[in-house]
Amino acid sequence: MRATIHLAQQPEADELLGRSPLAALVGMLLDQQIPMEWAFTGPYTVAQRLETDDLDAAEIAAYDPDAFTELLREKPAIHRYPASMAKRVQELCRFLVDEYDGDASAVWADAKSGAELLARLKALPGFGEQKAQIFLALLGKQYGVRPDGWREAAGSYGEEGSYRSAADITGPESLARVRAYKQEKKAAAKAAKAAETARNLKATKTAGTAKSTRTTKSPKTP
Predict the structure, then answer these.
(1) C-alpha span between 35 and 98 (Å, rounded)
(2) Phi, psi at residue 221, to the nearest 5°?
(3) Positions of the region Disordered (predicted)?
(4) DSSP codes, the chain
(5) What is the pLDDT of residues 3-28, one digit of tens each?
(6) Count of CB atoms within 10 A of residue 3's CB?
(7) From CA 81, how far away is CA 76, in angstroms rounded?
């Protein structure tokens, strides 16, 4: 697997992502609750601290959990939540060792369809529906992994010309567009939640007023 990647916005980290299937998976796993560049720089930082030029699933799976947590916690930390992410990275690597003999690329190498590949990605520890679809789109758009129906399986993230996720980042400009999209989506979700809270509050007040009226109403004289 060789690709020109700009997710980390750091040459050495992007070079690793472009040639290492496991680094790409780990970067995607880390991509939550922190900036994308920070997440996708993580695999390179881990490799450096392990004093190797690539990540090895078997080595990480067998690593002492406490020591691996400290490795991710060392400043600069790999993630905002290094302990929980250390656990998730090791769970992912153990799964790859058990199911794919430690070969991350085997997850997608012989997938016959986008639906099959999506199912395989969703089976990975730490990969829910959305993360699996984004990574599927990333494989198709930037790594040339394109089984039949891959765009459809990736949902909106597979759309050509979109700027929704890491799958669409090819440089600083596209990174800015993806970030703007995420901010707009977050603002819309916040506004929708506020509107729902207001509706619920209004409904509660209305119900309370009606109950109060019924309670205070004088009973009819027989």
Answers:
(1) 31
(2) -80, 130
(3) 192-222
(4) ------SSSSHHHHHHHHH-HHHHHHHHHH-SSS-HHHHHHHHHHHHHHTTSSS--HHHHHHS-HHHHHHHHHSSSPSSSSHHHHHHHHHHHHHHHHHHHTT-TTHHHHT--BHHHHHHHHHTSTT--HHHHHHHHHHHHHHS----BTHHHHTGGGG-TT--SSGGG-SSHHHHHHHHHHHHHHHHHHHHHHHHHHHHHHHHHHHHHHHHHHHHHSPPPP-
(5) 999 999 999 999 999 999 999 999 99
(6) 16
(7) 12
